[in-house]
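ARCHIVE CARD
Drawer: 12
Card no.: 0347
Subject: one protein chain, sequence and derived structure
Cross-reference: see card 0346
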Amino acid sequence: MRVYARIEAEELRDIPAQAQRAEALGFDGVGIQENAFDAFLHAALAAEHTQRVAVATHIAVAFARSPMLTAYAAWDIQRLSEGRFELGLGTQVKGHIERRFSNEWSAPAPRMREYARSLRAIWDSWQNGAPLDYRGEHYSFTLMPPVYAPPPLPYPPIPLYTAAVGPGMSQVAGELFDGLLIHRFSTASYTREVMLPALERGLEKSGGSTRMEIGGGGFIITGATEAEVTSGRERAREQIAWYASTRTYKRVMDHHGWGEVCLRLHRMSLEGRWDAMSAEVTDEMLDAFCIDGTYDDIAAKVRIRYGGYATIISLGMPVDRGHDDKFGALVEELRRSV
């Protein structure tokens, strides 16, 4: 199992130090989350200032960008990192694509299939000189003058991952992608009973011969002390309330019989009652989405939760650097024992 550090810097200038710290702590990679910034800018800085770790977007919003723009950004970072870049994509939800990015929304699974095929067609034209001739319902790419084609890469093909919450996108991952990034808003039961069977259907459709990377999803809460773990649980409660207010994710809540909570949280979000929403997330819900423990005992829980299927897990780095030695030992234990 590979262990990635979540890089969550608010300022571009902070990315190099965070990425270098992750490398020094022994992580296998750094995962860039696209929230209030551009994931590719952060990934490029992380790549420039590290030497060993994989640099991944976990995730970049696909439907906010033309596949051509995504292809160029990924190509540049793969060259800059000397072959260490991993492109993780996600669809986002309808409200954000239409109202935050002012883009058109369409059925996500068919569109993501075309997105992946578009990227591979573009990259094939750059790497091998193949004529660019991809035509689909959502995307069409038929023009690539030599002046606009970057030089071939002397590195392996860029790994292409997609994030998923539901079975449709999980199946698409198995059909066309190199990896599936299971959303943090996922429980062990939902993952095993809904997402992994859909992934298997996709692999069967594609021939099932490709090794599939799987990012574990869920929340891993850890700290040097019980007090730090307790504080982390409460932050996770707030995040779960925020995710659960999105009706697109209601299927996860329905799986556990908590669908009404999703609808109630959605109403609260429309009313702007953000501070009150975490109270709707019970300890039972928290335990379903999270595993938690100190650096001394979290590894065993990770093995139980993720050992049967995940090839990648992600951890946030501690703010307090006074425990870096102990945290680094945990990272090494996870890499060796899971």
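Annotation on reverse: The longest strand covers residues 2-7. Residues 62 and 91 are 6 Å apart (CA to CA).
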